[in-house]
Amino acid sequence: MKTTINSADKRSNLIAKRMLLGAAIALVIISVFLYGVDNVKPEWGKLWMLRPLIVVPLAGSMGGLFYHMMDILRVRGGWNTIVANTISFVVFIIALWMGTVLGLAGTLWD
Fold it and tell me: What is the pTM of this model?
């Protein structure tokens, strides 16, 4: 017996995949950035790096969610696809920047 997946299930799976991809990209970027920190100030505390490792991937997942929401424009094809992808990329970069600022505020971002 073959089971079919309705379009709502496919759409929710696609949202999850895009959000996870955005979070994974953000996690890799902030991890590389934090790996290079040698001199840690004692007032930051022992677990100072947990905040950026949580906040930045959350911002990346929101960028992935925005990319998914731009499917409304992207499915029209032609120039709409190029515009949707460009806007999605710019919003993703802004989300990463804002997440990095919020995550590193008070530690590396002075």
Answer: 0.83
Domain range list for the chain: 9-35+45-104
Burial class (CB in 10 A: 0-12, 13-18, 19+), 92: buried
- Give me the DSSP letters along 79-96: HHHHHHHHHHHHHHHHHH
**Angle, helices 7-35/79-104, rounded to nearest 10 degrees:** 50
Task: Classify residue 7 by burial, with Cβ atoms within 10 Å: 0-12, 13-18, 19+.
Answer: exposed
Rg (CA), the chain: 18
- Three-state secondary-structure class, residue 45: coil
Q: Are 29 and 56 in contact (CB under 8 A)?
A: yes
pLDDT in tens, 23-71: 999 999 999 989 888 888 888 888 889 999 999 999 999 999 999 999 8
> Helix 7-35 to helix 50-69 angle, to the nearest 10 degrees?
140
* Other Cβ atoms within 10 Å of 55 Cβ, number: 20
